[in-house]
Amino acid sequence: MIDLYYWTTPNGHKITMFLEEAAMEYRLHGINIGKGDQFKPDFLAISPNNKIPAIVDHAPADGGKPISVFESGAILLYLAGKTGTFIPKDLRGQVETLEWLMWQMGGLGPMLGQNHHFSMYAPEKIPYAIDRYVKETNRLYGVLDKRLKGRDFIMGKQYTIADMAAYPWINPDRQGQKIDDFPSLKRWLAAIRARPATQRAYARAKEINPSPTSTRSEEERKILFGQDSSVVK
After folding, report:
1. What is the C-alpha to C-alpha distance for residues 19 and 156, in angstroms, rounded to an integer?
2. Could you state, in order of their start, the residue ranges of all structural domains in the chain?
3. Which residues of the chain have pLDDT under 70?
C-alpha cells in the first residue's frame, strides 16, 4: 500500500498517473497547499521541503520498515524501480530517460511555474517577467516538440516516467502558447490524455479538490508565496 500526500497540481498528477498506470494500491491524502497543510509537522516529517507530493510505501522491496519519498522525480524513480515498469531495461535507455526526467525537473517545471506565477498570481503585472517566462516556455515547448518528432513518446515506442513527468505541465492556453505551432507535441498530448490511466488519475483529483480554481485569495498568496525559513524550523 502506498500513501500519497497530494494536491491537484502538475507535480501531484505525475504520481497518480504512475500509480494508475501500474495498477498499484494507494490512498490519497489531500494536502491543501492554499490552507498551509504543507507546513504541518506530520507532513514535514516526510517532506522536509514542505512541497507536495510525497509518498510512504508500507511494503518496500526490502521488507523493512515503511519508506517515505519526497520530490516528484524521486518518487517516479522509486516507483519505477519498485515495479520494474515505465523505464527501459537497458543502461543507455535508462540514462536517456533520466536525462529527460531531469530536464523536466530542472527546466520545464520551474520555468513554467514562473510563467504561471507572474502571469496569474503576482500582485502586479511585470511585463519583463511575463515576457521572459512566456518566451522560455516557448523554447521548452520547442525542445520537446523536436524530441517527439517521429516518436510516439519521449523514449520512442515506450511510455515512461519521462512522459508522466512532462505531461501535466503542458498547458498551452494557460502558458501563452499556440499548440498548433508544435504538431508533434500536440499529438503526444492527445495520446497521453486519451490513456485510461490518465483519465482515472485526473478523476481522482476531483475527490480531493472538486472545484479547482486558478485564482488565489490574498491569504492564500501569503501562504503560497510569502514564506521564509521560519516555516520549516
Report:
1. 22
2. 2-85+197-232, 91-194
3. 214-215
